[in-house]
Amino acid sequence: MFSSNTTLVACAATLFLTSSVAVAEQGVVPPEPSEPGRVALESEPDSANPLTIGASVDVTSRALWRGIATTVGGAVVPSFTLGAWGFSTTTAAYLGFDAESPQVLEELDVTLAWGASVAGWRFDVSANGYLFPGIDAFDHHLEFVGSASWTGGVFTVGTLHGIEVTSTPGAYYGEVNVAANIELVSSLALSISSAFGWSNAAYAGDWYGVESAMPQSIGGNLSLSWAVGAGFALSPHAGAWYPTDQRTRDALQTAVLWNTGLTVAGAW
């Protein structure tokens, strides 16, 4: 993430394609990231063993989240999820290896969440901590997030809303999204998704230093996942983003923000 004195995007319109791991005897199950650009992979618990474990390592030229760059340059992003009875905790570290990275550990995210599925609906609530250990210029953030989605056939529509409670209390971010999850073969699937996000002035000023009009960003990501067995999948990906606000383009010194990478993920 970036500090409050960095001018970036507070409103994101995203288009990305992702794919997922095949779960035994269930075909391919598309991943359900808590937010666009974040890796999340889950296995379905059974009644005898409710514990679920997920892990991933993403090697990327630049991490993206809500339509913005969350690292200065190249990064390795390991994450680990542990869940049971609808509750889960996820930890993700952003380890920069670019020469311009302020330090090796650029960011540490910790999430506590609860979710439930009822008749095609999915509801999730979480407390998300975005921490920047050792970087005094960056404020730590704690955000409460709630989301709801409905799935019918291959399509999923949803909405997400988050509110900051520590750095700038009352800073708000909202989003609506739609996805089409397509199984290609038993071990290969694509998810075509789009999202539009917005924020209030407090959120824009706290995160990006954009106090007036809400800038927007449009872009896309392409990911192809291949299930290699034992709950693991390989996912090469590439994406590009275009900020519509001139101030954002000036701050980034580029009209297009892009990344490429490879994710190795597993769920048990």
Q: Could you explain the architecture of this structure?
A:
A hairpin with a 2-residue loop joins strand 13 and strand 14. This protein is mainly beta and 268 residues long. Strands 1, 4, 7, 8, 9, 10, 11, 12, 13, 14, 15, 16, 17 and 18 form a 14-stranded mixed beta sheet that branches. A two-stranded antiparallel sheet has the order 2-3. Strands 5-6 form a two-stranded antiparallel sheet. It has a single domain (11-267), classed as monomeric porin ompg (Porin). It starts with 10 loop residues before the first strand and ends with a strand. It is 6% helix and 57% strand.
Count of helical regions: 2
CATH domain class: Mainly Beta
Shape: globular
Structural class: mainly beta
Query: How many β-strand stretches?
Result: 18
Q: How would a textbook summarize the main sheet?
A: 14 strands, mixed
* Annotated CATH homologous superfamily: monomeric porin ompg
| Integer count of domains | 1
Helix content: under 10%
CATH architecture classification: Beta Barrel
Q: Which percent band covers the strand fraction?
A: over 45%
Return residue spans where pLDDT drops below 50 for at least 5 consecutive residues: 2-44
Radius of gyration: 18 Å
Q: How do the SSEs run, as a string of H and E?
A: EEEEEEEEEEEEEEHEEEHE
